[in-house]
Amino acid sequence: MATTFAYFNGESSCLNCEGHDDCEIEFDFHGRTERVIGCIKKMITYESRKMLNLYQHYKNGFLYTAGGLINQPAVYINSMAIIQNAIAQIEIDERKKKNGHK
Question: Is the full-model pTM beyond 0.85?
Answer without folding.
Answer: no
